[in-house]
Amino acid sequence: MSKKKVLGISFGRKMSNTEVMIKTALMECEKAGNEVKFIRADDLNIQDCTGCIACVVGLLQGASGKCVIKDDMHIIDEALMECDAVIVGSPTYVLAPTGRFKTVCDRLGPSHDVAFRTEAKKAGIERGGKPEQLPDERSFKKRIGALITVGGAMTQNWLSFAMPSMYEFTISMGTSVVDKYEYFGAMAHEHVVGNKEVMDRMVVMGQNIAEALKCEDDTELTKWRGNDEGICPVCHCDMLTVLHKENKVECPVCGISGDLALVDGKIKVNFSEAEKNRSRLFYAGKLEHQVEISTKAVGPGQIPNKKELLEKYLGYGE
Ligand SMILES: Cc1cc2nc3c(=O)[nH]c(=O)nc-3n(C[C@H](O)[C@H](O)[C@H](O)COP(=O)(O)O)c2cc1C
Fold this sequence. Notes:
36% of the residues lie in helices and 19% in strands. It is globular and about 65 Å long. A hairpin with a 5-residue loop joins strand 7 and strand 8. It is an alpha/beta fold. Helix 1 crosses helix 8 and helix 2 packs across helix 5. Bound molecules: flavin mononucleotide. Flavin mononucleotide (FMN) binds next to helix 1, strand 3 and strand 5.
């Protein structure tokens, strides 16, 4: 049997905390017989998404949805398509992952959405499209992932949006996150190396990925292996949005709502099975969005008097 492939991507400084943590987990994966690859995002020229929506329009027409920007994103794209598991790490900058991390997530956005790609493949085959005109077949492989964020602050609340935002890397491709770790108090370059507790935890992360990759069955492969259960039973994060409708709250990562209650003085949220199943981390949640966009969104050319309506804004205040 060919070796499973584990990819590590760091958005941190060269040879600094995030990189050392990812590499520690990768070394463990390699020790367990997997093939590993490491990418430092800072070494690549990745441009911002221009919002041209060529990917969305292409996919809705049954084409590959390839991005039109010519830069180094193809290196990340190819490594992601090839891998069976990905370990992604970003420092926390101003409470959230870095700008480059977000740039890469935007470039993975609709263009790599597994529901958009599945529907595009069906439509493409129907209209007789050649394999090279269809979305990459490797898009449909089940992948797992682990997330790491590192903050320099001494208090966890300076990393507030970091971990929930790290899921942005995995949502569109449908990568199932099986472990995550948030570390704070690491301002200096070398803070983490030699920190036994953190290094040991990264060894466990590597082992969790390696163990998962041995599983044939998708339920076992994608099983949660992290330490913390979190308030949301799907993404295991602790963030909630208040919906101002009775006791309803929403998980901002999964987009699912539940009923908040105090049980023995502790906050609990009951998410129904139906809600859990429509999390955007799952195919059903992504398909819900694909259907909404393909049937209800206002596409280009649908406002007949657009030119007239836009006239007063042209050049205003520039
Ligand atoms: C622009 C900038 C903003 C930062 N904002 C935060 C922050 O909001 N919270 C925090 O905990 N650390 C913050 N930090 C500290 C970094 O998260 C910390 O230095 C981390 O170790 C960097 O990861 P690295 O060593 O892998 O590069 C910030 C650092 C920079 C450069």
